Amino acid sequence: MPELRYDPLRQCWVSIAMERGMRPSDFFKPIDETSRGGFCPFCQGNEHVTPPEVYALRPDGSPPDGPGWELRVVTSKFRALAMEGDLNRETEGVFEKMNGFGVHEVVIETPQHDLGMADYPLEQLEEIIRAYLTRLIELEKEPRFRYIMISKNHGGAAGATLAHSHSQLLAAPIIPPAVSTELDAAREYYRQKGKCLLCDVIKQELEAEERIVSQNDDLMTVAPFASQVPFELLITFKKHQHTFAQITKSQVTSLAWALKDTLTRLKLTLKDPAYNLAFHIAPNTNAQLPSGNWTTLEMDFHWHLEVIPRLIQIHGFERGMGFYVNFTPPEEAASYLREAGPPDVSGSAL
């Protein structure tokens, strides 16, 4: 019989269809067409077709915007937001609008065209995390940016338009609704119980064990209790930390291990599925946030990463009601992923 489960962080209900129990092989698909050949603007030697780099890792000391790099960050050529003019917020009756003010950057993670994030050595993943951190700290200096989103689309079904592995940063004058919902839930839980909601979730998952996929000393990967889609995963630090900007050098290494481990297990179990990866971090505390709304932010919000495999299509039922049906119980998903490993990554799972 299906089971309705409530997600206290995202504040929504999910139907876990226990009887269907879709296995990994039920989701296998042909090789993604985005991996086919053709001209690639992100490959080494084609730097002239991208906007100028704003950050790069160049061990050989080579000049900007030419070969010799291991990682580049450039402004997106197809910007969702642009750093031009002012916000100019105004209303039209019940509607509200403002200029698309912000920054949209692309992190070209490697010069190698055919590698995915799961394929990188740990050292490369650490450099990518450090690039995210460097750009986040720089972008948060602008008080008009309320939120900086770090995300990645892997595969055409997840929205990637180029096969060459890359991720994106979007600095916006608004806080995304999905993050706002989590912030509100975390704040209200702290108001009522004086504790962090995600810390309590982590404690309960560590005690139950059945949905944990892997862990190291700092982080854990878990299939959420109310997973909205099959094989959805949450990566989080076990100890409370409210923003990615707080991460230490040793934690960068731990996070690289967790990413490598998690994405490798997904690749092995589901034959390299398309997925979205999103960092859910705290808003920019340098921004002009609503007064009084964020006084407990450091105590109540616990930053984390979501990995959403794109194995199924979202239909009218989900769109119309915001109500998801998941045909692979998270307990089964976690079991399949545990069986895939441990992958060959340095560091030891507990």
How are the SSEs ordered, and which strands pair?
Blueprint (H helix, E strand, L loop, with lengths): L2 E5 L4 E5 L36 E5 L13 E5 L14 E3 L2 E3 L5 E6 L13 H18 L7 E8 L11 E7 L4 H17 L3 H12 L3 E4 L3 E4 L10 E5 L11 H22 L4 E6 L16 H4 L3 E6 L6 H6 L2 E3 L3 H10 L11
Parallel strand pairs: 2-15
Antiparallel strand pairs: 1-2, 3-4, 4-7, 5-6, 7-9, 8-9, 8-13, 10-11, 11-12, 12-14, 13-14
Describe this structure in words.
The protein has 350 residues and is α+β, with helices and mostly antiparallel strands. It has one domain: HIT-like (HIT family, subunit A), CATH 3.30.428. The chain is built from seven helices and 15 strands. A ten-stranded antiparallel sheet has the order 3-4-7-9-8-13-14-12-11-10, with helices on both faces. Strand 10 and strand 11 (219-222) form a beta hairpin. Helix 1 (122-139) packs across helix 4. The longest helix is centred in the C-terminal third of the chain and has 22 residues, at 249-270.
DSSP strand count: 15
The helix/strand order is EEEEEEEHEEHHEEEHEHEHEH
How big is the Rg? 20 Å
CATH superfamily: HIT-like
Categorize the overall geometry: globular
The portion of residues assigned to helices is 25-40%
Proper CATH architecture: 2-Layer Sandwich
Average pLDDT:
88
